[in-house]
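Researcher: We're teaching a course module on how sequence relates to structure. For the next exercise, students receive a sequence and then see the predicted structure as tokens, so they can try to spot secondary structure elements on their own. Here is the exercise chain.
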Amino acid sequence: MSEQKIYTTTGHVFHLDPVSKTDWVGVAADALTISLYRDESRRTCRIVSMFQSKAVINCFITPGMTLVKSSSKFGQWEDVRANVLYGVGFNSEGELDTFASQFENAAATTVQLPMPGAAGAAASAAASATGAAAAAQTAQPAVQVQQQPQQAQAQPAQPAQAQQPQQAAPQTQQQPAAAAKAATNGTHAPASAAGSNGADANAEDDSNAVALYDFAGKDETQLGFKAKQKLYDVTSTTREGWSYGSILNEDGVTKSSGLFPTSYIQITKAASANASNSAISSALAKRAQEAQEQQLKQQQAEKLQQEKLQQQQLLLQQQQQEKLQQERLLQQQQQQQQQQQQLLLQQQQQQQLQQQQLQQQQLQQQQQLQQQRVATGSAAQFPPVNPRGGGSEQLDSEKDVIIKHLRERVENSERAKAAADASNREIIETLQGDIASFKNENDRLLAALKESNLSGQQWETELKTVKTNNARLLTALQESYANVETWRTQLLAIEEHNAKLQKKFNDVEQLLNRGVSLLRE
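Model: And here is the predicted structure for the students to work with:
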């Protein structure tokens, strides 16, 4: 093989959407390696980029091809021979300028290649087979080294056939647009395209991969197969570099399943469509799951907010009940104070009555004394006959007894008044302390009630915000459902288009076989 790598760069590869004809579709999420190969003996140059054992760019540069700079970091060109439009996005403007310079130099120094047709089918087939084998041998290791540097020990070694592409190297998958152009123009497609896409010969085939090399399983968990054997239900696994799938047994009905290295197989077009469909379904399921989780979170948040509001309402009710109890206690205390004040007034009135009675008694006694003095004066002038004698002494003793009794009653009334005053002062002081404590407690409850009202307003505002976000999420989910329906419609259109291309490809292959048989005859 005389092809030599002359330039290598990295960029994001895009293909033009075959349905809309206006949108770009990215081949991979990460940047891929893009290389230029030159064949000095044939004076040809081509651009190659590999992704998952598939040539996403395999374009011969011919004289007159130009690179159009759509922006400062994006360039595009058309492969006239394959009827494919490629686009590459670079990280900087300098990388795009360097790639454009290499592209122009290659277009200026290459020769015009013949268009694929009936007369040149054999030569074109040989060129395509050689170019695809070189891409699989040279570009694929570079991509694997950059994207999977840690798979050298996890994956088994490639068989010796991969090092000899001239003998049994696998053919990379060609762009479907080449077959579409060949069928439209009524020309024969290269024979190597049919060989490389052997798994796509039947549009109704449900297999989604084809074996590139022979693989012998080492234990019961691994699946052994032969080269070019079809694989079904191929899926990825958690084990890096390994896939899981099944093959048909010799009876053509039952299947055997197991693990095998991903590098030993090639995913077919049917698998790409299934992968797109499964990707859409998984994206839809993921969005639905996220929406459900978000809705559950919102419901939980609303539930928590409702519980908090209920707790706040309970606290408010408790506070109101406590306030009512305190008001009742204040009323009872006020009633007790009024009763005590009434008792004090009654005691004061009784004391006043007692004083008045004492005063009246003293006046009466004075009057009696005066009368007695008058009587005793007259008796001294005309002393009555007193058989017993001692009349004045008896009056003095009675007077002393009365005065003593009056003094005792006055002292008792003063003592009762002092005791009543002391008890009244104690009651008043106790009531004043209770009133102050009740007033402080009432102020504290009013402040707590205001704070709870403010927090309730804040929770109401947050609940409104949550409801608004929920409505926005529901709207976004409905839009995503609508987008998924649009994607499904586009996917069905792509599948119908692929089926038509496959049918045309089969017709071209039949025509090619007839032409070959005619040439042999």
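Model: If you want an answer key for the exercise: The helical segments are 93-109, 121-147, 165-168, 176-185, 191-196, 269-381, 391-520. The chain is about 60% helix and 15% strand.
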